Amino acid sequence: MKALANAGAPHGTVVIANEQTKGRGRLGREWASTADKGIWMSVLLRPDIHPSRVQSITLAAAVAVCRAIEPVLAEKPGIKWPNDILVAGRKACGILTELSAEVEKVAWVIVGMGLNTHFKPDDFPEELRSKATSLSQHLVRGAVLDRTWLAAEILNQFEPVYEGFVRNGPEAMLAEWKERSVTLGKRVELIHGQETVPALALDVGEDGRLVVQLEDGSTREVFSGEISLRYE
Ligand code: ATP
Which position among 45, 47, 93, 208 has the lowest Cβ density within 10 Å, counted as fewest Cβ atoms? Predict the structure, then answer.
């Protein structure tokens, strides 16, 4: 998708793969994107916003994925800051937003989504079995899990959330993100390299940063690129 973006592909270009051989998460981590088992999709955007606001698009995408998958699920999905969607406490989807920008102007944004749809527990690599899940394992009775329909539904849900964010600001999207968050109000551990710091997750800022309270009572803001969260 980066090659397409750099070659001038238009705003709204979508690439969907059946299999992804080099799926990535944050901080260079690998993302398992097995053939036939999920929706591996990237959306190219060229928003007229300041580069500092781009990470909020990750939050908008998480809201859209939740809206799309909720009707087929027996339990409500939740968003783990900044970019994971959990079902029954396990990760079913990850979202990664990358951008290319010059000083004040965004050239392109790529929102990558990996959504596990058809994995059976044994299909996951060994190390993921205790923390990953797939929509197929949580379907409401009678639901049909069709990847084409679901991919379209994610995009249909994303469009108004994204347009509202770009035109009117982040308030409405953030309110829904907070309502769907499973992070806010929880005790978490901030993991940065070898360092682990206990904290209370208080709020999320307009640009997607997480506001936490440390044990000494002070508050700190953390960015998605620097920290992983573990629940205590
Ligand atoms: P963590 O879940 O360890 O907190 P993170 O949110 O900090 O990870 P991400 O970039 O969101 O990091 O995701 C990468 C991590 O997600 C990988 O290190 C791996 O543990 C896990 N993972 C990889 N592929 C999948 C998948 N298909 N489904 C669920 N989880 C996956």
Answer: 47
